[in-house]
Amino acid sequence: MFFKEKLVHGTLIKRYKRFLTDVKLDDGTVVVAHCTNSGSMKSCLEEGAEVFLSPVNDPKRKTKFTWEMIKINDRWVGIHTGRPNQLAVEAIRNGDIPGLTGYTEVRPEVKIQDSRLDVMAKNDQETCFIEVKNVTLKEGKYALFPDAVTTRGRKHLETLIRLKEEGYRAVMLYIVQRMDVEVFAPAVEIDPGYSESLKRAVESGVEVFPVQAEVSPEGIVLGKVLPFEI
């Protein structure tokens, strides 16, 4: 996935009220950017770090920029939580994720039971429901999810478990938007409930795909599927 417009470079001043960010652009101008990430952003929030913003040409939007990425330890970390969904749909349509290929119909944002799941993929043999999560939390060599307690995330896991029991294929797709990690795992200390639900989901046959993504100011490219520990 390549960015349609050139991103704007700046320096992070602060993040506040969860969804707002003050950024100093290279010309000295201070702008307010929208932060799509509602989590704690632990391990990817550093005041004074380089950031890139995408410009927004929507007269109805109060903020004219959206925060895309931040440089941590000389590597870009993608913090825009909407990008993984776009990447997932594009990659599944193109057959770019090993194990998630061969689908002739790929639809985003599908309402099923009491949830809205991110992707439905179909072919003549099966229907697959896929929930996508953005992963930025790092601890040592591990990429961890979530970075804050997520009741909604547990609900999605419960839905996938039921769908698997009904005969559908069910997948948790974690897009790891940083390259300085080697293994995916649930963040047990942050949300033990989510960890338990994920373990139960795997035992029920829900598949887990943690896919690493290389983030740059030009675009985001999916790479290898990481090993995981539940």
UniProtKB/TrEMBL annotation:
<dbReference type="Pfam" id="PF03749">
    <property type="entry name" value="SfsA"/>
</dbReference>
<dbReference type="InterPro" id="IPR040452">
    <property type="entry name" value="SfsA_C"/>
</dbReference>
<dbReference type="InterPro" id="IPR041465">
    <property type="entry name" value="SfsA_N"/>
</dbReference>
<feature type="domain" description="Sugar fermentation stimulation protein C-terminal">
    <location>
        <begin position="83"/>
        <end position="218"/>
    </location>
</feature>
<dbReference type="InterPro" id="IPR005224">
    <property type="entry name" value="SfsA"/>
</dbReference>
<protein>
    <recommendedName>
        <fullName>Sugar fermentation stimulation protein homolog</fullName>
    </recommendedName>
</protein>
<comment type="similarity">
    <text>Belongs to the SfsA family.</text>
</comment>
<dbReference type="GO" id="GO:0003677">
    <property type="term" value="F:DNA binding"/>
</dbReference>
<feature type="domain" description="SfsA N-terminal OB">
    <location>
        <begin position="13"/>
        <end position="79"/>
    </location>
</feature>
<dbReference type="Pfam" id="PF17746">
    <property type="entry name" value="SfsA_N"/>
</dbReference>
